[in-house]
Amino acid sequence: QVQLVESGGGLVQTGGSVRLSCSASGRAFTTYTVGWFRQAPGKEREFVAAIRASGGHTYYADSVKGRFTVSRDSAKSTLYLNMNSLKPEDTAVYYCAADSSVILSNVRRSAAYKNWGQGTQVTVSS
Questions:
Q1: Rounded to whole angstroms, how far apart are CA atoms 60 and 91?
Q2: C-beta of residue 18 within 8 angstroms of C-beta of residue 83
Q3: Do 65 and 50 form a contact (C-beta atoms < 8 A)?
Q4: 3-state helix/strand/coil string of the chain
Q5: Residue 49: phi, psi to the nearest 5?
Q6: Nearest Cα to 112, choosing from 38, 41, 34, 43?
Q7: Nearest to 49 by CA among 37, 57, 33
Q8: What's the rounded Cα separation, in Å, for the pair 123 and 53?
Q9: Nearest CA to 45 among 61, 29, 67?
Q10: In what order do the strands lie in the sheet with 68-73?
């Protein structure tokens, strides 16, 4: 088990930037695949980005590719999501997730992650 706490959300204008953080505690963070998901009102939770435990490979949703960057600082047990060129459609609650058993084909599936944070709101004003 790992406990996750997100921070860094808020209100930002279109074209602006925000950095989300996800602090992890508990078992060895470096052995977990970690990801970001988001959920807008009335919509299903969707994949945003992930970074694998082994090799540090990163994965992105097409809608954020080139604008968002996921990274992890293993020494601090922290996951980051740098969000640039934000659009109103990026408005959502953003969740970080972690699991030690995510296979490659499931990296983008929310059901593959057993550990979740409480979420942080990001609102992009037009």
A1: 17
A2: yes
A3: no
A4: CEEEEEECCEEEECCCCEEEEEEEEECCHHHCEEEEEEECCCCCCEEEEEECCCCCCEEECCCCCCCEEEEEEHHHCEEEEEECCCCHHHCEEEEEEEECCCCHHHCCCHHHCCEECCCEEEEEEC
A5: -165, 160
A6: 34
A7: 37
A8: 30
A9: 61
A10: 2-7, 18-26, 78-83, 68-73
Q: What is the pLDDT of residue 61?
A: 98
Query: What pLDDT was estimated at residue 26?
Result: 74
Close Cβ partners of 90 (under 8 Å, ≥ 6 residues apart): 38, 64, 83, 122, 124
> How confident is the model over 20-69, as pLDDT tens digits?
999 999 767 788 999 999 999 999 999 999 999 877 899 999 999 999 99
Smallest CA-to-CA distance from 92 within 34, 33, 47, 35 is with 47
- Residue identified by tokens 């490979």 is 57
